[in-house]
């Protein structure tokens, strides 16, 4: 498959989460040496992916390593002589979802050997979230929008027009204080803000859907539980248009 120069500019997200085939990776890495904008985009997307990993990380259950190894020892492996035909449609996503697959395996082993419903639900949720993040970051039209608050806090929005979604992630936000929460808003040409959800923590990533007509994403500090209208001034605002 021949990859054009225009195609290469769309591969920053997939490259950042290791979701390219060998042919695409080779072509894109050659492209990176002469395209500064793509190099910057890859660096920022990789940093965002790392922050998302930290945001959903959790300490593994006790004895998980021993259980995983025990389960692996009892699992029948494919014969090295088995005929396997690679599916190019699956290969593209293999690298991006590798970490998620490891989490899924951990969930399976934990469910099988512990029977702790609370722990099972937590691990299953982590696996689902990590898989969704990896898949979203590898969307071909994913682009980054950055914002900065006067207090030094920063925000990153990964925007995908094809999915009509954005993923918002904040860094260095101060503690909102007792009885207060951070709330996201989307604002269109009519300047009317619409709530896009609360941050469950200062580092929790938030998916924002329905971006058609949205020109700006803003973050405000509100009473716990959120508000119907934003409390001004906004902590930070990021233009999307």
Automatic annotation (TrEMBL):
**How is this protein situated with respect to the membrane?**
Single-pass membrane protein
Q: Name one Pfam family in it.
A: RskA_C
**Principal cellular location given in the protein's record:** membrane
Domain Anti-sigma K factor RskA C-terminal, chain residue ranges per copy: 98-233
Coiled-coil segments, which residues? none
Q: Where in the cell is it found?
A: Cell membrane; Membrane
Q: Where are the transmembrane segments?
A: 93-113
Sorted UniProt keywords: Cell membrane, Membrane, Transcription, Transcription regulation, Transmembrane, Transmembrane helix
Q: Where is the signal peptide?
A: none
Please state every residue range assigned to the domain named Putative zinc-finger.
13-39
**PANTHER family attached here?**
ANTI-SIGMA-K FACTOR RSKA (PTHR37461:SF1)
Q: Tell me what this protein is called.
A: Regulator of SigK
Species of origin: Lentzea pudingi
